[in-house]
């Protein structure tokens, strides 16, 4: 899914399918009763209200275009404000953006959920806690366990995976009262202004609407929310 900081290795892309992502995350150490991925069927308020709450993070799949690439490169040239407390990593593996998006999502909500002790995710975040974004990327690139898990998740998808794709996953998370766009192809997180856990979905939807408006001829967009599981 689009070129990366250093495309030495390429995986097959993860399907934008909540069921596939849930099985993937649950197998890596996210307990099924803690959080789950759900489809967001539209960005209008009434459709956003249908999404299970509370929403902890939002994933967005969109097509890469020359215009989006130009905007990305321009933003990367701008000076970024410090992003204290944000878990962020670069992407060096081709087509790994779905997995990177999920790692960004879980990595920024560890205070809201409890991972299985000594599971892959538990070990991964503890091992990479003090690394910089590129060190985290290289750690993932050399992690055989994650590569196998990603491959298994790809095989569980409903459509046949192809290496020839030009779509990209990013993550939106609320950290310290700010809405951050987390994209492993960027050099740093992008702040989109104030947000809160209760308005995260609506705030992310506003940003996503703006991105979709820049590519009105495409229908290849997908939004997935990661929601905290609550007892019925």
Can you walk through the features of this model?
The N and C termini lie far apart (38 Å). The chain is globular. Helices cover 35% and strands 19% of the residues. With 232 residues, the chain is an alpha+beta fold. The strands form two sheets. Strands 2-8-3-5-6-7 form a six-stranded antiparallel sheet, sandwiched between helices. The protein has a two-stranded parallel sheet with strand order 1-4. The mean pLDDT is 88.
Summarize the structure.
It is built from eight helices and eight strands. It has 232 residues and is α+β, with helices and mostly antiparallel strands. Strands 2-8-3-5-6-7 form a six-stranded antiparallel sheet, sandwiched between helices. A two-stranded parallel sheet has the order 1-4.
Q: How are the SSEs placed, and which strands pair?
A:
Elements: E1 9-10, H1 18-28, E2 35-39, H2 45-48, E3 55-63, H3 66-77, E4 93-94, H4 97-107, H5 120-128, H6 133-141, H7 144-155, E5 167-175, E6 178-182, E7 190-194, H8 200-213, E8 222-228
Parallel strand pairs: 1-4
Antiparallel strand pairs: 2-8, 3-5, 3-8, 5-6, 6-7
Helix pairs in contact: 1-7
């Amino acid at each position: 899914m689009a070129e990366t900081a250093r495309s030495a290795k390429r995986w097959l892309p993860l399907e934008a399918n909540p069921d596939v992502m849930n099985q993937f995350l649950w197998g890596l150490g996210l307990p099924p009763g803690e959080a789950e991925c759900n489809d967001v069927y539209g960005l209008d308020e009434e459709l956003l209200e249908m999404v299970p709450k509370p929403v902890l993070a939002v994933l967005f799949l969109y097509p890469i275009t020359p215009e989006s690439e130009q905007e990305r490169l321009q933003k990367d040239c701008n000076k970024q404000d410090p992003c204290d407390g944000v878990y962020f990593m670069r992407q060096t593996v081709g087509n790994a953006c779905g997995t990177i998006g999920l790692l960004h999502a879980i990595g920024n909500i560890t205070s809201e959920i409890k991972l299985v002790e000594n599971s892959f995710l538990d070990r991964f975040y503890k091992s990479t806690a003090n690394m910089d974004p590129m060190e985290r990327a290289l750690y993932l690139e050399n992690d055989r366990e994650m590569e196998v898990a990603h491959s298994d998740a790809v095989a569980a998808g409903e459509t046949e995976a192809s290496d020839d794709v030009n779509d990209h996953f990013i993550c939106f998370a609320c950290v310290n009262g700010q809405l951050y766009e987390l994209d492993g192809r960027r050099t740093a997180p992008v702040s989109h202004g104030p947000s809160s856990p209760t308005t995260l979905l609506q705030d992310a939807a506003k940003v996503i609407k703006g991105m979709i408006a820049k590519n009105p001829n495409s229908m290849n967009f997908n939004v997935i929310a990661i929601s905290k599981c609550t007892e019925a």
